[in-house]
Amino acid sequence: MPPFMRTAIDYAAYLCLRGTIALVQALPLSICERGAEALAWLMHDVLRLRRRVVENNLAIAFPNWSDAQRERTMKQMWRHLFLMVAEIAHTPRKVHRTTWRDWIELDRDDLILQTVLADGPKVVISAHYGNFELGGYVLGVFGLPTHTIARTLDNRFVDRYVNEFRGRTGQFILPKTGSRDDVERVLSGGGVLTLLGDQHAGPKGCWVDFFGKPASTHKAVSLFTLSYAAPTVVVGVQRRGDAALKYRISGVDAVDPRAEGFELGTTPLLTEWFTRRLEEVIRREPAQYWWVHRRWKGEPPSRRKATSKDKTEPQAV
Description:
Layout: H1 3-26, H2 29-47, H3 51-61, H4 67-94, E1 104-107, H5 109-116, E2 122-126, H6 132-141, E3 146-150, H7 156-166, E4 171-175, H8 180-188, E5 192-196, E6 206-210, E7 213-217, H9 219-227, E8 232-239, E9 247-255, H10 267-284, H11 301-312
Protein name: Lipid A biosynthesis lauroyl acyltransferase
Keywords: Acyltransferase, Cell inner membrane, Cell membrane, Membrane, Transferase
GO molecular function: acyltransferase activity
């Protein structure tokens, strides 16, 4: 496709996105809630999009659940995802320094503040749970700027627009590839790096149990903490009830590599620690997790080698 055609298509998609967001912003949140319910019905009952992926993920995470429990959670998940999009559109107009208490409740905020206000580099770890975008936005509202590593979107117009929203209060985005020097600058300068700790890292990742099954996790999440001796906190941003834009930001647990007797000084140990904390958060409200993405893919290298050996070597008799 000629470059000018690609640019025209991308810009048209960007204009459609801006128009959709303007429409959503013009609607009351109560209408957005009903719209999210209708779209959840469409995705779950009619289109059945990614249904098999979600079913398989829930079967792994909650093997003792009934079919009815899984069905209910799947539909609630879609409602949450669509409502989250509407909330993000409304956030800049509703959540400010003088109004955030109308929408946000803090729980164990001492863990968050002790970490992000500590001297030197800091790391905040979250997951694809609740409204994680709102978490970074609210930290900026509190006057605590952060830097987040995220994949650059293919559509450069949409990517710029999304990053402008994120940076409105001081949440700055670093590209997932080629940002090594930027990360060095942020952490060496005593900044706050926020990361999603539940992304699949491929066969070379750090494999730890997630809901009882090995999942590959990016080693860099732990290496940032260990290499820079950075205090680290796990944070959950959970919807309160069914109402739009009503959230609880919770400090789940925190560690400090500089503390005497620190016992999580290796990548596997620290990865296991924050993965367990994230699992604890997700279990609170499973319908608020992104079960649509494939968290469990492949097998740990040791298991693959064992399987290959079993197939090729003769069995003793």
